[in-house]
Amino acid sequence: MNKSMLIGTVFGVGVATAAAGLAGYTMLGKGRGDSAVAPQHCYEVAVENPVEPKDQKRIAGTVVGALVGGAVGKDVGSSGITTAAGAAVGAIAGNAAQKKLQENRTVTTNETRCDPAK
Fold first, then answer.
1. Are the C-beta atoms of 60 and 76 separated by less than 8 Å?
2. Which of 91, 106, 117, 111 is nearest to 45 (CA)?
3. Are residues 9 and 53 in the same domain?
4. Smallest Cα–Cα separation from 114: which of 67, 45, 20, 53?
5. How confident is the model at residue 97 (pLDDT cuts 50, 70, 90)?
6. What does the pLDDT read at residue 31?
7. Distances (CA, A) of 84 to 59, 72, 95, 98
């Protein structure tokens, strides 16, 4: 590589670096109050969000309902049929009760909302 080619390359890199620095400085300066910001009215709003249930298949409610239903069925009649029927009805009722409880669970959070000022 000869001397003039080396000087030209160094000069070209210097000019490119200076141009990039100037362009970056210009771009950064535009975000500093040069643009007008519309006035806003901000306020807090309470928002209720549903809680995701831990027991998706409602196994706990089904098992507890079956146990209680089976105990009641055994007290009502002395045969195994009444115990089994009570357990089945209790399982259905326990599942439905847990479903109802899970649907009604929510968490309230505050969110900030902003509207343009009038």
1. no
2. 111
3. no
4. 45
5. very high
6. 56
7. 18, 10, 16, 21
Q: Which run of H or E residues covers position 107?
A: strand 106-116
Q: What pLDDT, on the 0 to 100 scale, is given for residue 40?
A: 85
As given in the structure block, the two tokens for residue 28 are 């950064």
**Residue listed under structure tokens 């362009």:** 23
Phi and psi based region of residue 105 (left: phi greater than 0; alpha: psi -120 to 50; beta: remaining): beta
Mean pLDDT of 51-72: 90
Count: domains in the chain: 2
Closest residue by Cα to residue 44 from 107, 108, 104, 105 = 108
Q: Cα(7)–Cα(118) distance, rounded to whole angstroms?
A: 62
The CA distance from 51 to 105, in Å, is 6
Looking at the chain, the number of H-run helices and the number of E-run strands are 3, 2
25 and 66 in a common domain: no
For 103, the domain range is: 44-118
Please check whether residues 56 and 100 belong to one and the same domain. Answer: yes
